[in-house]
């Protein structure tokens, strides 16, 4: 699985939407990194993970915990208020001790104000409006959606997205629009049901302009 660690300092938590968007971008930055390709040091681990289920687990850290996590091989992506570190995939029983001891459940975040509407020119990861997910679960699902979009793009489209800093939005879909989105042919995340929601639930539709 691919570990993601979000920095949540006491008294200064990130905004929920920014955390989701930063997590999605962290997954993309790792997938695009040269170490994840060819003979790169992470390439074999990434290939083995992509050949199985692309599970992601989000944990939280602060203070010393965060500094220890940053000392491990990985990539930190910074949003407006959020910092998320993505690590190369590891076996379920192979977590480094400084990650294994981090909390995985109960991560709740709020948006101080409603996010602005997403523009048509940027990719949007549409969340299922009928599902209740913790912030950590939603971050993992946003990461899945970003990855499915990445897989669906051509090399030139991937390069353009990377050059744009992997700009994207994460928004809750309009309930009246959800059925159209899931039937549009865009990449859809269907959850395996390990945590929180029922197996097979559609959680995210990855709406990239190049895929419309």
Report on the architecture of this protein.
Helix content is 33%, strand content 17%. With 212 residues, it is of the alpha/beta class. The chain has a four-stranded mixed sheet with strand order 2-1-4-3. A four-stranded mixed sheet has the order 6-5-8-7. It starts with a strand and ends in a 5-residue tail after the last strand.
Radius of gyration (CA) equals 16 Å
Low-confidence stretches: none
Q: Fraction of residues in helices?
A: 25-40%
Number of domains: 2
Number of helices: 7
N-to-C terminal Cα separation, in Å? Answer: 30 Å
> Mind summarizing the main beta sheet?
4 strands, mixed
Mean pLDDT figure:
94
Q: Order of strands across the biggest sheet?
A: 2-1-4-3
Strand content: 15-25%
Record field, number of beta strands: 8
Shape: globular
| Assembly state (oligomeric) | single chain
Helix and strand string, N-terminal first?
Answer: EHHEHEEHEHHEHEE
Enzyme class: hydrolase
Catalytic activity: an N-acyl-L-alpha-aminoacyl-tRNA + H2O = an N-acyl-L-amino acid + a tRNA + H(+)
Protein name: peptidyl-tRNA hydrolase
GO molecular function: peptidyl-tRNA hydrolase activity
Fold blueprint:
Elements: E1 2-7, H1 16-32, H2 43-51, E2 56-61, H3 63-70, E3 75-78, E4 83-86, H4 97-100, E5 124-127, H5 135-152, H6 155-163, E6 169-172, H7 178-182, E7 188-190, E8 202-207
Parallel strand pairs: 1-2, 5-6
Antiparallel strand pairs: 1-4, 3-4, 5-8, 7-8
């Amino acid at each position: 699985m691919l570990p993601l660690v979000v920095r949540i300092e006491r008294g200064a938590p990130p905004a929920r939407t920014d955390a989701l968007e930063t997590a999605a971008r962290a997954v993309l930055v790792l997938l695009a990194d040269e170490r994840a390709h060819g003979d790169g040091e992470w390439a074999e681990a990434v290939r083995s993970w992509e050949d199985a289920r692309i599970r992601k687990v989000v944990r939280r850290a602060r203070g010393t915990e965060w500094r220890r996590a940053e000392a491990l091989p990985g990539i930190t992506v910074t949003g407006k208020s959020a910092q998320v570190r993505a690590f190369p995939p590891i076996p379920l029983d192979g977590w480094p001790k400084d990650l294994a001891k981090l909390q995985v459940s109960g991560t709740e975040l709020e948006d101080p104000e409603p996010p602005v509407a997403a523009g048509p020119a940027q990719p949007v990861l549409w969340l299922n409006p009928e599902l209740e997910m913790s912030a950590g679960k939603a971050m993992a699902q946003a990461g899945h959606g970003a990855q499915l979009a990445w897989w669906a793009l051509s090399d030139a489209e991937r390069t353009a997205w990377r050059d744009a800093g992997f700009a994207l939005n994460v928004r809750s879909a309009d309930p009246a629009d959800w059925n159209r989105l899931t039937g549009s042919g865009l990449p859809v995340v269907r959850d395996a049901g390990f945590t929180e929601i029922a197996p097979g639930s559609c959680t995210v539709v990855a709406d990239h302009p190049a895929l419309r």
